[in-house]
Amino acid sequence: MILRVLAGLLATLLLIAPAAGAADGLDQRIDRGQAVVDGRKVIATGHVDVGPRFVDGRWTLMIHDDEAKSKPGGRSVWRHAEQTVLRVGDVAIQTVPDDPAYAFLHAAGRQVYVVPQTQDLKVVWVGWNTQDPDVMERIDRGVRLTLTDVEGPGELVVFLQSGDFAEPQVLWDSTAAARPVWVDVNTHTHANWVFTEPGVYLVHVRVDAELIDGTTVSDTRAMRFAVGRSASPEKAFSAVDAAAGSGDDSAAPASPAEPVDDGGGSSALIAVLAVLAVALTVALAAVLARGRRTKQRARSAPGAGR
Length: 306
Hints:
The protein is about 25% helix and about 35% strand. It is α+β, with helices and mostly antiparallel strands.
């Protein structure tokens, strides 16, 4: 009985762990003092994250550009959001399945532009991180990321899709009320970004945090997307940010709702599962060994085999 239970638990863990690992396979390290570069940049492929950084002591939401290191001798850099356009070409077009699980996309059977959660080398791969060393040292536990507004010809939905057949988890929907997403310190996450129409989008994102010294910081920036082959990066650069202020908010505003988790804490789950798997494996081996010893004693006992 014990043997069957242990074997069943071990099999379950082996089924769960790969799914958790697939959602968390985003290990990266950001070196201290990576350069902040000035100048316009259009990024159509490669890996980028939006994330907070202290620039001259000022809390700032920026674009972390890994595409820059794809060239020989290249290194990752930080870019200003207003100087960066993320270009999403027609290669990103997908058809929304006629499935109730995806009803939140409001576009069953329609073609949409998808920046996928899993990297497609032909599409810019957009995520977020809280891994700048200064940020990790100064923030208390994590940050809140909030989609505050979307200016563009269509709608934007950002959602997570786990690898274990779970329902999609909607993080942001431009047609719904603003909702913060909680992001733990030292987290790197990617999600699906779905744009329903081609054109230029200004995606306003706010990052709030409490620092370990008790102060609060907040910054709002517009991520610029040129979606579709006909969308002009130049128009994206020149698009007027209707929600623009100074960019730096003096204090973090109250969150309009309880934050949802971006799933970045799954590493801890994997660690727990790994420990349990090892423990169950050891226990299973011990049970099997004990069974073998019992059989050997039985065979060697007087009268055995008669």
